[in-house]
Each structure stands twice: as C-alpha cells, then as structure tokens.
Amino acid sequence: MKKLLLISLLGLISFNQVCADEIEISVEKIDNKPLSDIPMKSPVRPINVDLTNGILTFVNGNYCDYALILLDEDDEVVYTVAVPAGTKTVVLPSWLQGNYKLCLVPDNSAYYYYGYIVL
Asked: For residue 106, how many other CB atoms are within 10 A of its CB?
C-alpha cells in the first residue's frame, strides 16, 4: 500500500513538472526613461517565470517590486497588479483567456521584461 501511495505521489510530481510552461522572457528599454550617467557594472538580471494553470511562478525568486501588466493582442491593458519583492507566485484571474503580452516592470528601472502567454 505504501509503495502504491509513493508511486502515485511521484506521478503527481512528474505531472506537475510537465504541465509547467516556462515563459521565454526578453528585456527591453523603456523609451521615455533616461539611463543613468553612471555606467552599468553588470547586465540586467534575468528572470525565469513559469505558467501553470493560470499561476505565474518566479523560478529564481523575485528580488524587487514589479508592476505586472497584461496586454491583449491590440496592445490594450487588460490586467495590472503590483507584485512586491519576495513574491513567489501570482494567481491570474480565471476570467482571463486568450493570448497576452506579459510585462514585468521593475520599480526604478530603465528596462522591463516581457514575454507572451496563452491562458
């Protein structure tokens, strides 16, 4: 019985890992935000975000405050929420369905992250 329970749990863990979709994230400069006069010493920190059943997960952590913005195919804002530093997951509303551009805009940054998702 214990073996059956263990095999079932391992199967669920494997199933959850298969269902997670890593979002390909790109970085772009915010057009109207000036760059600092001080040269950057390192590149913009990459982030990894997974999407599983409408739940966004920050794989390597969330180190700053973000504004999470979803744009529809006409570049209209359909959803926005503040994501405080340290947040591991964000549950997106169930009424969101379709193709969206996901934008993560860090506070006090001249750059933002974006990727495309399907809900």
From this structure: 21
